[in-house]
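**User:**
Everyone, produce one record:

**Assistant:**
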Amino acid sequence: MSTNDAPARAQEIIDAVNDVLERGSRAVVTTVVEAGDTTLLVGAKLIVESGEIVGTLGDAELDRAVTQQAPVFLRTRDEAKIFKVSELVTESGAGAGTKILFERIEAEPRLVIAGAGHVGASLARLAAIAGYRVTLIDDRAEFVDRKLFGTQLEEHIELIAADDWRQAMRQAIGNGRGVSVAIVTRGHKQDEECLQAAIEGHPDYVGMIGSKRRTNIVLEKLREEGADENELKRVRAPIGLDIGAVSPEEVALSIMSEIVAERRGGSGAPLSSWRRV
């Protein structure tokens, strides 16, 4: 690649990253951070998304190797990791001293909360602290009044007064990528409408508050109406991890813990459990 090609190649990479973020997808950006004894250029980049690539690291064999490694990297919890070329490919003209930086790119995680009562409001605030983009929905306008969420952190919470639960939920969930849904409404009817919308949106996580009896009633009703059984099995109901929560804030913590565990691949087990073996 000549220096005259560099601006065009850089713009291609920028456009690809923006496209991934706009679609709520995930990809890996790989960068040559140490070129070793080769003709590779430090700073050369290649983006891998579902096997599709944009850019090049300057070596065809190395490009193939990082394309194969990218999905493995995405299954880890790492945000970034440097690989030696010897860890990626056995034979390459890239040189033994070459190092490649893998970086995860994905849109900020989103949380759509149905129900702005005590638990929903607490969950919205906690999720905002955790770095989630939050949408809080209720059919009671006074519960999503901006005056109730006026701090600097809370002003980024999107508040929606819904005339139609199902329509508001579907719009908020969008294509479902990178989205978690917490249904914490005040009754069966609202639960059913919100859960139906969530199932249709295919978010990464769906949870619904309530007792085993209440949640089973809602799930059975949707089952009778023809909802996809596999989607119903994905619903976390009752929502949250068992931490003995009592107060709305504790319940919100229980819910948020499960959402993070689902996103990061955590087990929810005590980190100290190894000491008891």
Observations:
- The beta strands are 26-35, 45-49, 52-55, 80-84, 98-106, 110-114, 133-138, 158-161, 179-183, 205-208.
- The chain has nine helices and ten strands.
